[in-house]
Backbone:
């Protein structure tokens, strides 16, 4: 099977530069040996001594120059949970050094012409949008931007309670931009909503129970007038329409603009999951495709979690011992980068695979 190329995954990384001379940094750390890296997070034998960050670089790509597994970035930087969830920025012209003495990566000060200093990571919260200056984005926007701002799924317990379009102006059946629509349901003080139509029911491969519905994005509406009476309806105007809206279509609040500021990392808890569906209704996925899995925030998965993809080992007859059945080991063939998380379902970008992804394949915590 042809090996797919590795996708470039990026990170937004605000940075506070704390200048320390190389000699001083070394003298301060030689007395205390750093914790040993796990076997899966060792540096590559041919890792370079340094890498100059350029525009278009990604965290995943930079990590891959130094590490056997790019998701080990937090471990080699000594990052804690808060720093993973509220990471710093990394900019072009900074230099990533491989500190071989301490077995860690360091950043050089890009504002020092001689680039002779080594910087330490210093926590600092800073919020920026998707196009914040020259900071490297987390994941290429063209790959996942539509999946960040539009509803992907409506979980089973949310579907019944979602506000719904019950009628249209002048008795119309379908509505487009500028038309009035009438809505019943709890708005929870919201004024701007996305309209969706329930699509394919997503079933848990283990239990066969419906855990959600893929949401077919229709458009957006804005509240004009609240209902005056208990049996009244709320009046909305169609602001944008990808396709015609109809009676029975549902509403979800427009989510805030996402700030992509997460770090690839292994999950804190052990994860055992399955591939629920390949987004778009196809049966198999390859690199850069989006798949959903049957685990979410309730099982400790968060944005940036990296999981292994694999296939259950086959059960075959042992031809050397009366053909008794034996199970071959599971075959792991790639990695999945989680970028959007719901309660019981998560969506991930397929990357670094040596085989195609099938619905029902296993997803688990990377072995260390």
Residues:
């Amino acid at each position: 099977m042809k090996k797919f190329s590795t996708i470039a995954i990026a990170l937004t990384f605000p940075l506070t530069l704390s200048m320390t001379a190389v000699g001083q940094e070394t003298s301060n750390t030689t007395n205390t040996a750093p914790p040993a890296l796990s076997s899966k997070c060792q540096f590559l034998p041919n890792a370079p001594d340094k890498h100059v960050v350029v525009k278009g670089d990604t965290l995943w790509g930079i990590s891959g120059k130094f590490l056997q597994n790019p998701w080990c970035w937090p471990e080699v930087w000594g990052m804690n949970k808060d720093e993973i969830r509220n990471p710093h920025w990394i900019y072009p012209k900074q230099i990533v050094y491989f500190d071989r003495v301490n077995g860690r990566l360091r950043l050089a000060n890009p504002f020092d012409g001689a680039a002779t200093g080594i910087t330490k990571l210093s926590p600092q919260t800073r919020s920026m949008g998707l196009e914040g200056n020259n900071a490297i984005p987390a994941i290429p926007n063209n790959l996942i931007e539509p999946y960040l701002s539009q509803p992907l799924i409506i979980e089973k317990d949310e579907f019944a309670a979602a506000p719904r379009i019950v009628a249209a102006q002048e008795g119309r059946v379908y509505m487009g931009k500028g038309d009035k629509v009438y809505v019943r349901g709890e708005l929870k003080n919201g004024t701007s909503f996305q309209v969706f139509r329930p699509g394919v029911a997503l079933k848990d491969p283990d239990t066969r129970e419906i855990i959600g519905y893929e949401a077919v994005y229709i458009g957006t509406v804005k509240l004009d007038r609240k209902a005056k009476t208990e049996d009244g309806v709320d009046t909305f105007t169609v602001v944008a329409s990808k396709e015609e809206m109809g009676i029975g279509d549902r509403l979800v609040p427009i989510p805030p603009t996402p700030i992509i500021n997460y770090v690839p990392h292994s999950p804190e808890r052990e994860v055992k999951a399955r591939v629920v569906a390949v987004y778009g209704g196809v049966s198999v996925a390859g690199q850069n495709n989006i798949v959903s899995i049957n685990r979410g925030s309730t099982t400790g998965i968060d944005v940036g979690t990296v999981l292994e993809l694999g296939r259950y080992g086959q059960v075959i007859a042992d031809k050397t011992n009366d053909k008794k059945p034996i199970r071959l080991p599971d075959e792991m063939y790639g990695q999945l980068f989680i970028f959007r998380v719901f309660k019981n379902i998560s969506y991930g970008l397929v990357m670094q695979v040596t085989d195609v992804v099938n619905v029902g394949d296993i997803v688990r915590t990377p072995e260390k």
